[in-house]
Amino acid sequence: MSSQPVLEIRGLDKSFGPVQVLHEVAFSAYAGEVTALVGDNGAGKSTLVKCIGGTYSIDAGELLFDGRPVQVNSPREAADLGIEIVYQDLALCDNLDIVQNMFLGREKKSGLVLDEATMEEMAAKTLDSLSVRTVKSIRQLVSSLSGGQRQTVAIAKAVLWNSKVVILDEPTAALGVAQTAQVLELVRRLADNGLAVILISHNMNDVFAVSDRIAALYLGRMAAQVKTADVTHSQVVELITSGRSGELGLQNVNGVTA
Amino acid sequence: MSTTMLPGTKTAAPSPGIGQNVRAYIGRVRGGDMGALPAILGLLVLCTTFAILRPVFFSAINFANLFTQGAAISMIAMGLVFVLLLGEIDLSAGYTSGVCAAVLAVAMTQNGLPWYVSAGAAILTGIVIGLVLGALVAKLGIPSFVVTLAAFLAFQGLLLVLVHEGNNIAIRDPVIIAIENRYLPPVLGWILYAVCVLVYAGVQVVRARRRAGRGLMADPATLIAFRVGTLAVLGGLAVYALNLERSRNALLVSLKGVPIVVPIVVALLIFWTFVLRRTAFGRHIYAVGGNAEAARRAGINVDRIRVSAFVICSGMASIGGIILASQASSVDPSTGGSDVLLFAVGAAVIGGTSLFGGKGRVLDALLGGAVVAVINNGMGLMGYSASVKYIVTGLVLLLAAGVDALSRKRAAASGLR
Q: Using CB atoms and an 8 Å cut-off, which of residues 94-123 of chain A contact chain B?
């Protein structure tokens, strides 16, 4: 296993007004691994992701990228570092084709004119590197794609920019069985290509199918971050629902600090 | 670089045959994406009907009339496409053109400014109007329907103020008058035609070559030949017809050639098509119209796109206003009023621009404008009164919007949207 995490968070606090949503959260993601971020509704998964992605500012704590401390103040800055987030509700334009969507907002130009040929080549190469075989033509409108194919395009869009960390927010939530398998395979391939993948999921089967590590949030605290191989299904469920499971997790759940 | 594209499809044939293109097109139409097809069919039906009922419809003079009558509305409709692409509407575009025409007239007649300064002032007025409307919609978040409805009323008043409560300001400047009432020498018409066709063919061939050279899917030669051929034939027929002698007494005064307004419309058509199809700005307009949230997340400044669409719309309306002033040789309180706006919206929608945003082309506005102009002209020749014309045009607009809504439903059903 790699020694140094690509992305490391230490002591992150985040409050919205009087409500403290995240308490001294520590979290790390490693290159070549899928780290699953699990937790019940309201545990703070989305907030944590938005703090990493620069949508929310953080109140306290450190963000280390490749070992050096960084400040992420906007989604653009996160993207510049190589952090890409694929949101649950996809953010694709139905009336544009796959290539146009993948390059949206970051179009390649030669002079004033769009450089369609280069964009098409790059998009094809990216999809190829992810062994995507389900798409008929990359000049197809996104409106004609299935849910799984859309998710594939959204993920491919995230890896197009030589990103190092890809965060997937419930990529399989709305998919059928076969499409879920497809997307999970893609998630695994991202990690195998050397990226650090953070997978937010409610589905324990998905988590155990692809993840290398599991980080469980409980009421805004990091209950535990463990290797997937070291824990069982029911332990993870316990971590999610009560914040502890035997030796693992928060030892004083109702107290002020762990 | 020989990319294998996506395995499974393009490895075999880098450029699909013409048959495949035709099949793909039929598939799109059946799936509800009809584009300009209704407009073209409508145009054919209307022209045939009028030509049978009133042979004078196809006379050289009436053919030229179609162009001068449709020019202003097409211009406004081309601008409206940008606003419609965002899923917004500009109900004030008609009176914006009236106000800008009045600015032009006042600047020329009452302040004695030369035509180019006056026209500049008119266009600047349009741009400022667009900035205000766009800011109200994008920054304040007032629905565009309300903003522009308010502007529709207010501009009507502004127009009255500018023309001093109902005066008719005559325009005598020969350059402004010439836009709608003078014609290119026949030779110049043919030269411009040849340049257009050659450049279009050149652009198509170079692009296909370049793509093929990089191993990408390129348009097959037959398709390019078909496109260029269509343009050459239709353009050639139009130029030929416009170059026919239209004067009843050619010895006294000769009337022939392409109206000067036509190359202006064509130039703006090419310019805006280029902007929409080949620049990042145009791509962002489609993106905001398709999914504003996705565009925002992609780092596109959605507010700026919104404002600029309104600026383009009002700016084009100001040019439309100048054409209206030239057509009537005067500006009065009804310039740009009554039917102009609805005809322009109708032109855009009939041409296939979706009222729901995200779909449409500038060329469509021109095709739709042609339909509107033909209805207007043909029914005039048939001797119908304005009342009937209004009713028929209203029904056609409703029909076009119905086709738009239905094709959207159909597209949803077939998974194309």
A: 94-96, 100, 104-107, 109, 112-114, 117, 120-121
Residue B23 has pLDDT above 80, yes or no: no
CB proximity A124 to B under 8 Å: yes
Mean residue pLDDT across chain A: 86
Q: Is A80's Cβ below 8 Å from some Cβ in B?
A: no
Calculate Rg over the CA atoms of chain A: 19
pLDDT at B12: 37
Give the DSSP letter string of B263-278. HHHHHHHHHHHHHHHH
pLDDT score of B309: 96
Predicted-assembly ipTM surpassing the 0.95 threshold: no
Is position A156 within any domain? no
Q: Does A130 touch chain B (CB under 8 A)?
A: no
Answer yes or no: is A174 within a domain. Answer: yes
Residue A166 Cα, gap to closest chain B Cα (Å): 15
The tens digit of pLDDT for each residue in B132-156 reads 999 999 999 999 999 999 999 999 9
Mention every residue, 6+ apart, whose C-beta is less than 8 A from residue A197. A29, A33, A34, A35, A165, A166, A167, A168, A187, A190, A191
Report residue B381 CA to chain centroid gap.
Answer: 24
Q: How many CB atoms lie within 10 A of CB B26?
A: 10
How many structural domains are present in chain A? 1
Report pLDDT digits (tens) over A20-53. Answer: 889 889 999 999 999 999 988 888 888 898 898 8
Least Cα separation, residue B198 to chain A (angstroms): 21
Checking A116-122 for CB contacts under 8 A at 24+ apart, the result is A117/B210, A117/B211, A117/B214, A117/B216, A120/B216, A121/B1, A121/B3, A121/B214, A121/B216, A122/A160
Close Cβ partners of B2 (under 8 Å, ≥ 6 residues apart): B215
> Which amino acid is residue A132, in one-letter code?
V
Give yes or no for residue B20 having a pLDDT over 80: no
Q: Is the pLDDT of residue A216 over 60?
A: yes
B5 part of contact set with chain A, CB < 8 Å? yes
How far A236 CA lies from chain B's nearest CA (Å)? 33
In a domain, A46, yes or no: yes
Token pair, residue B387, equals: 């009342």
- Using the Cβ of B54 and the Cβ atoms of chain A, whether some distance falls under 8 Å is answered with no
- pLDDT over 90 percentage in chain A: 16
Q: Which CATH class is domain B36-182+259-412?
A: mainly alpha
Expressed as residue numbers, the domain containing A171 is 7-92+163-249
Closest among A180, A175, A244, A251 to A216, alpha carbons compared: A244
Which amino acid makes up residue A155?
Answer: I
**Is the minimum CB–CB distance between B294 and chain A shorter than 8 Å?**
yes
DSSP reduced 3-state for A103: coil
- The model's confidence at residue B128, banded by pLDDT at 50, 70 and 90, is very high
B231-251 in b/e form (b: 16+ CB < 10 A) is: bbeebeebbebbbeebeeeee
Beta-sheet pairing, A165-169 with A7-16 = unpaired
d(Cα A145, Cα B175) in Å, to the nearest integer?
54
Is residue A189 a contact partner of residue A213, using CB atoms and an 8 Å limit?
A: no
Residue A52 to residue A63: CA distance in whole angstroms: 8
Compare B253 and B132 and report the one with higher pLDDT.
B132
Neighbours of A206 (CB within 10 A): 21
A231: domain CATH number is 3.40.50.300
Q: Find, in chain A, the residue whose alpha carbon is nearest to that of B298.
A: A105
Vertex B239: Cα angle to B236 and B244 (nearest 5) = 125
Whether A50 is covered by a domain: the verdict is: yes
